[in-house]
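re: that chain from earlier
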Amino acid sequence: MTPNLQTTLQFIADLTRHRLGTHFDKEIPLPEIPEMLDDQHPFTELVLGKKMLADEYVAVAVGLVPHIDPTFFDKIVAEFLPPSQTDFKPLGGYKSSQLRTFLPTGETVLFLLADGNLEQRIATLRIFDPDHYFASDRILQIEGIGVGEPVSSGQLVLDTDWVERILFGKVRRPRFGIGFPAERVETKLAWEDLVLPASTLQEIEELQSWLQHGATLMEDEAFGRRLKPGYRALFWGPPGTGKTFTAGLLGKHAGRDVYKIDLSMVVSKYIGETEKNLSRLFDKAENKDWILFFDEADALFGKRTNVRDAHDKHANQEVSYLLQRVENYNGLVILASNYKSNIDDAFMRRFQSIIHFPMPRPHERKQLWQKSMPAQWDAKEIELEEIALKYEITGASILNVVQFACLRTLARNDSRLSNEDMLEGIAREFKKEGKSA
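^ sequence. v structure.
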């Protein structure tokens, strides 16, 4: 642990004992704020980089304490209370359902900094203001405030990213779950494995250019202020034509993480829950250069309807909220849909790129078949030219067919791919899609 963290924890402990001492007739001196050594630790960079005032420094330290020692405040309070009493209400705090130890609230900060000094309490409340850099820079927030309750009653929450930087030296990738309904998209393939029409590839190159040079445009004093942050693109076309694959390649070659949003975990039937889920997602992604990929986006980005009942009004509010968050996101957002016409017109006007991923044509299908064939297997029997010309099939389906044929070949203890197995595999794919081969 960095010396600055050690001295900070000791300072918060001494400050807590001093404030408690005033209530229990014990003379405990008021500690001085320790001098910060410039050790290039994330905690030091946060405090010195933001040129924090005393109350800001204390608030951040109090928010960090439970992540280092969840029993920190309980042990100090126990020094002043009899064994039968465990709570000291003026200190604030709450207990979560998972952790039954003291967790700080805004009231905890006010007690440590001002106690009963009303003028000082009011002055300290400024750090919880939505316009304070704690909120705007997503450093420290007050959460869980009930209707009509004072702001100081809310939970004191130090942003998870800052907690991880301070404790682990880096921000860890988020885990897929209800709190973050998105999975990372990765690919081992390269651009030469992507088979698309030249016009589509050219439009994809424009996205690469933005990923490489977009920040330079925003930094231009005259031009940058006219631009909205981020970039928005629509990928549309039949399933299996390379939309997700392309998103993965864009991230891989730009050195950016790509997250595919699971809309089934975002959309909720309960009023306001979809917006909350979206808010958590975009807040987590902010300022990380992530590429957000919304597959089958029609479920959330679909056309707004005429308001006939409360359900329609709620659905339209979700689309409006999403439009606002997408427009203000400072990274690349990609929406994927089977049909361009399904997307709300308000989104269509805001896309910088609308890229069509069509069904592959015969010469493109031949390339896809060739690229999908295992290199070490004998495929001389396969009539690729005829198959590519006759069967309209996507790249994803071609891969399924080749895998089916390979498994059949292995089951025969053979190493030669059979044209008959290929045709049977194609028939299976067509059947899945409700078509006849």
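The CA atoms of residues 218 and 225 lie 7 Å apart.
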